[in-house]
Amino acid sequence: MPLTIWTNVQFPDDCLDRLTKGVVPHRIVKSAAASANNLAAGSVDPLLEEADIAFGQPDPDQITAQPRLRWVQLTTAGYTRYDTPAFRAAVNKSGTAICNASSVYADPCAQHLLAMMLAFSRRLPQSLDNQRGPRKWPYLPLRAESTLLNGQTVLLVGYGSIARRLAELLQPFNMQIIGFRRSANGDENGVHVLPTAQLDQWLPKADHVVNMLPASRETDEFFDADRFPRIKRGAFYYNIGRGTTNDELALQVELQTGRLAGAYVDAFCEEPLAPHHALWTTPHCFITPHTAGGHANEFDRHVELFLKNL
Description:
single chain, Rossmann fold, alpha/beta, 310 residues
């Protein structure tokens, strides 16, 4: 029997055409409130009530009130607004399958992080600042300050699909890679994975601390004024998790005092980040506007994942 597939994703025309043809004999119904921003929370939509499958960012309460839904394919790696006891209980009772899109974002996020780690090590931001500013020739200091990733220690906090892919990309540098997750399974493909409870004893040994934590009550301001000072002086900090997982004021203090050599931040507590926010001008703080997961064929890959799962 043909199924009805609801979506609130504003796909480019070619992707929508591929999706529509790819689901035949099933049919697509598109929300009038479709959005190209997959971080935007979907609103209640009457069209969802006739659907068997949802693709995008449906309203969580509407899902729980609609037990006929067989499957929900999210367009994000994170699923914070769906991760509640009431939602879990409802979909467990109805048998609705919930899938995230972590495989779509593992490569772009991992490559984004690798790019910044290499940029920090090779002092590329400093060279760019010089090119756009005084245009001097700091040959000796930049050569002396440049480092190699080889042999350094990196902590991957939140060891999910993005961290696993980053670990693969870092293997050629012969770094000491330690993963941390709530429930550790020991060694995973050559990476030693420990319980998050053991993180603090490793922070003084780390050259790079990579925050990939999801948003939850347990991770709110996980990196705070107590935990940041535990990180080794001169280390680098990265956040492509959720903005709520680090205390932005505490991070600012660590950078202003020079304890951290640098920070790269892609996610913030409130987005867009206000133009007057202090982190824009904090020394050695480098910002990208939540673009770590972005890539030119992002929508194509969502369609590919959906059709494969379908």
